[in-house]
Structure formats: structure tokens, C-alpha cells
Model the fold of this input.
Amino acid sequence: MEILVPARQIAPAVLASPHSGSNYPPDFVAGAQLKFPALRRSEDCYVDELFGAAPRKGLPLVRALFPRVFIDPNREPFELDPDMFDDVLPSHVNTGSVRVAAGFGTIARIVANGEPIYGRRLTFAEARHRIENYYRPYHDALRQTITETKVRFGHCLLIDCHSMPSIGGPTESDAGNSRVDIVLGDCHGTSCAPGVTARLEAAFRDMGYRVARNAPYSGGFTTQHYGKTEAGLHALQIEINRALYAIEATMERAPGFAGIARDMERIIAAIIDIARDIRTIRTDR
Done:
């Protein structure tokens, strides 16, 4: 993982990109049932680049360099499917979550289109290695950056940056349906003050984007875990329709990539203003 730090942080906001990592461990790729291009189907490709202006604008950006399909930092640390493992999993492992049932635990069973990743069972030692050496360092860095921001400014707005397929996947509630441009997830108003979400929604709409809230994505582990509004910690998830900036079949940058990146630079400016105003808008709906 990497923390991209501004020369001077100018507002109480932190950006994170947990799913844009593209450093695939060679032994993982060699041992997977899927070919490499197929492994990338769950990757939020280039999202860290779309929001790459954040440090230049005065906000830190925490990004995972490892791929989501290897281990997913937007899950609980031990959210695992017992059918994927040779071992009997320890009692502290969450084996019954909705995400595990769908195939998308901390270590995923399938990629976004439903294809299985592995042709073998894993060992719990493999899972523990990934958690201790990839997952935990990412969250340690994110937690440290959030804490330092809150100590300095008194509160913090975490923006968790993602992208989504343009069509709902086979295991999702909107399977086969086209999606809007932007989905904002605040765990139905529990991880972030609704007024904060409304301000960011208005910024996107003013730029011509079609926006939805909390459907089909209301926020994952990161927004749920770090969003504690009563303690001055607000967490909001952004999902960008991948077809806006990438050719989904090949995961290449689309001709409109630079324009979307410029728009996200404007969104970063809006995030700065919103973060500075949180104390006055936190009860605004």
C-alpha cells in the first residue's frame, strides 16, 4: 500500500482507493484457475489515478497496491468461505455473511462475472499470510491517516473511492440492469451525515452526472467501520460507473478518461469545501 501525502493538508478529508491495486503476486496468478485478464474483472482499475490530484490539492490519498481479487480490504479481516479451505476455520472467522455467501469474502471465491478463481482448496495459513501482510498494513495506514487528520482538525471525512461495472453482475440485486453514473453509499445515513452526502450528490449532479444513493451499493466494511458520526468521523463511498472511463472488456483507459479525471479533480475541490463545513451541515438533510 502507499500513502500519497500532500505538502500541506488543507482540509479534514482523506481519500482511499482499496480496489485499484494492480500488483498481482506471480505465484497467485500462476496458481489461479483463471487467466490473468479474467482475474482483473473485479479490479477498480485506475480509480487511484482518477483521484490522483488529491495530494496536489492538499488531501492525503491511501491506496492499496495489491489487487482486490488477492485479498479485499473492504471486508472484515476474517470474512471467509469455509468451502474454499482444506482446514476447519477458527471460531473467530465470520463464515456466514451475505458477502461470503455471494462469493466475495476477504478472499473472494469468484470474480465479478461469477467465474471461480481457484481450481483447488486453500489453506488457512495462506489466508492468514495475506491478512497479516497485506490487509492489516493497509488498514493500519488508513487508520493512522484518519486519526492524524481528526487530531489536527477535530473531525474527518473519509471518501472511499471505487468503480462499478456498468451492468449489474449475476450475483447482485440489479443483475443485468444498466447503472447510473455515480452511486454514493453512506450506509443509509449511518456512516456519514445525510447533509454531507447531499452536498456531494449536488456537486455531481451540477456536473451532469446521474446519481443514486445506497443502491446497489450502500457502503462496505470501510464505510461501516470508520464512519462514526457521533465522534466526528464521517465515511462516504463513491462508486463510478466504469464505462465512463474504461473499456470494460479489455480494462483499458477509454478516450474519455482524461475528462473524467478532470471532473474528479473538481469533485476533490468540492470535498475540501464540504469537509471544512461539516460542523455546520452535519444535521442538514
Q: What stands out?
A: Strands lie at 2-4, 13-17, 61-63, 156-164, 182-185, 211-213, 233-241, 246-247, 252-253. The chain is about 35% helix and 15% strand. The mean pLDDT is 95.
